[in-house]
Amino acid sequence: RMHQVNIIICTPGRLLQHMDENPLFDCSNLQILVLDEADRCLDMGFEKDMNNIIENLPLKRQTLLFSATQTKSVKDLARLSLKDPKYISVHEHAKHSTPDGLTQSFLVCELHDKLALLWSFVKNHRKQKVLVFLSSCKQVKYMNEIFCKLRAPTAILALHGGLHQLKRMEVYRSFTNKQNVVLFATDIAARGLDFPEVNWVLQLDCPEDAVTYIHRAGRTARYQMGGESLLVLLPSEKEAMLKRLEERKIPINEIKVNP
After folding, report:
1. Where is the Helicase C-terminal domain (predicted)?
2. Within 13 A of 192's CA, how many CA atoms are on the CB side?
3. Which of 19, 106, 159, 233 could disulfide-link to 185, CB 3.0 to 4.6 Å?
């Protein structure tokens, strides 16, 4: 049915598969190309797929790029054959690059204290919707198993790339529909997913850069609603990460916890 549709929504890999394997798929009449999370689509991880896709598209088209952390790379724009592109930013001249309704804090914690910190946080926010970001699938699986065995005082869910797509959709719907719940997730949940009414985003593992921080924190304080973000840093991570956040115009305050 690909030759009968007017709008196609897909990932780069799946679109390229249809281009290569579906004899009925024809892009010659394409009028508009939209890249959501454009900076991610154009980075090194998708470079080969995107180059192959662009080679199969007509040069005469409208191209729209969307992202909370938009690329201005001349190299990236040239790959897309953009001529005199117009850049529109909702916060280019704003004082901060994150929403005003987002309260942002960080604390410094030793590695061996993280689990106790997380357990205390969950116990004290059992009546709220919390999204916890961890650095790897193994971390997510481990935390999910530990909190289930400890009988956490609220519903616990886990979302990571190792899950089958149907299971990921099930977890997404469950977290969306629940009011009092904690979701442990990798950065698979940092982009492209709209979770309504998230009260807290807890970044238990430090993001790799300020761009990732922005997308993680952006899961709360959406659509003019308020929200809170807490970043947990190791002592060795504090100086470098705070410098990156300052360069990105991200206001964040340090808080202390009782030992």
Report:
1. 114-259
2. 12
3. 159
